[in-house]
What we know:
Radius of gyration: 26 Å
CATH class of the largest domain: Alpha Beta
Strand order of the largest sheet: 2-4-3-1-5-6-7
Oligomer: single chain
Low-confidence stretches: 113-118, 279-292, 294-298
Number of helices: 13
CATH topology of the largest domain: YojJ-like (1
Amino acid sequence: MTFWDNLISFWDKISAVFLSFRVPDFLDICFVAFVLYNLFKLIRETRAVQLLKGLVLLGVLYFVITTLNMQASSYVFKKLFNDFILVLIILFQPEIRHALESVGRSKFTSLNMNLFGGKNDSERFDEQMQKAIVEISRAFADMSNKKIGAILVFERETLLGDVASTGTIVDASISQELIGNIFYPKSPLHDGAAIVRGDRLLAAGCILPLTQDNQLSSELGTRHRAGIGVTEQSDALVIIVSEETGAISFAYKGVLKRGITDSQLREELVRYLLSGNREKKDEKSHKIKNIFGRFKNE
Length: 298
């Protein structure tokens, strides 16, 4: 066959593919592309990238061994890859869990607020949460002045029961005195983190996962690295007081804001924790101040 005959044959095959192309095929391609894109986006800045490189290298090595017909090595590799899917699940367990949690935190699941809670429930929660935020802000301002180290985690959509189980269950109403007693230097629970669920202090003395980010400043100690770590694996908010400087820090989604004032801390907590503000994170600060006007004289 001549070059032109080959070209015409190739064009006929391409045309046949396009003629048989259906809308479901297009949707199928889009879905696979979307999944692969988000998968790459999820693992590109984690240790999973190194694992993926190792798997690719093993795949290349297996191809070479098979090509050269190295029977002993081929046997070892076949045994290794017999349960390949199970191996992948074990290796990428943290990333798979993080992906499922991300899906669970998506906007599709936010409908539960409207389905299971009316306006009165939301208002009641905000009223209780406002009081809790005031108590927490006062406690952290006091600990900042006294340079008492502390770390407080606010549970949101991602439940932190596994983290709470590493400490002591408290399940008490939040007050300045309670927080001060927990983080008092001679308290048995002061070294760990405290977990807040809703408007109650769930647990204290909890152990948090450390961040894997090697680019962080060497000035940050274990307390700050643990605060960043839990926000990388969940949608939690974390506030920290440095034992060395007394500076207050705020962590969310792996980002740490250092050296914030107690009023800035209060604004951040209102912005992210009150149900009416969860989807309105850019509201003006004067609205936030009005919420707490009645607490000025307390």
